[in-house]
Design goal:
single chain, 295 residues, alpha/beta, Rossmann fold, 2 domains, eight-stranded mixed β-sheet, 8 helices, 11 strands, 32% helix, globular
Length: 295
Amino acid sequence: MQSAMIRKCGLTALLPCLFLIATTCASAQPASIKLWPNGAPGSEGMSTPETVRLSPEGEHIISNVQEPSITPYFPQPGQATGAAVIVAPGGGHTEIWIDHEGYAVAEWLSSHGVAAFVLKYRLAKQPGSKYTVEGTELSDIQRAIRTVRNRSTEWGIDPKRVGVMGFSAGGELAALASTRYDEGVPSSADPVERWSSKPDFQALLYPAIPHDTRLTADTPHAFLACGANDRPDISQGVAELYLQLARLHVPAEVHIYAGIGHGFGIRKTNREPVSGWPMLFLQWLDEQGILKHKE
């Protein structure tokens, strides 16, 4: 389509055409929403601008995040189930691989009736960072959960069907959010802070497992997936996490893919059976009673 547009314009009009293409592509990307419109607590004085680089495969990798945000992907009204997922991409807490573990995932979920919000969080392990995983990053994903609930009526979402999904370092963040939460502060002057930060379900994809899991019988139901060829702390850690949840009678489902390593996310190059994990997740949501369509 873009090549046809360039041919039609001709060489003398090439630059205006390229501008039109770039504008069209940019407008197709949903606008992000700052989690703290007046500035995130703990980011005072942090002026290093956010940067984006491209991997050799052309994927966008973000660093120097000072203003955490969510980018919403909403399903078509006739397809909306009322369920929502905050998607936390990975990157070792030093950067964010936001395409195959973020935007592609959110686009797929929204096309199947689930509202998705790609989380851009501050990075605790980037060189020179003053942020922390269990302080700053955790507060970012908690704020995202509260924000979605606070705007649930506006966005056509059931505030009791808001979960988290995380990949790699983002999986650690989702796991932390599922065990370190509060019910909100009803008296807060900030309406967002009045909402609970507890996810209604969690999906952990090849997650870094927190050292102190703090699992209880009230831990949110879990969907777990990783590759058998991943690092032992992940491939074996995911299996052990499943067993811990099972012993607590927390409903959980686990998939460990033979011959698969780290970082598969949603990519066009993924092959079966690992390429089928999104549909397995959707089926799991349905079995949990989370995908009841809005009336």
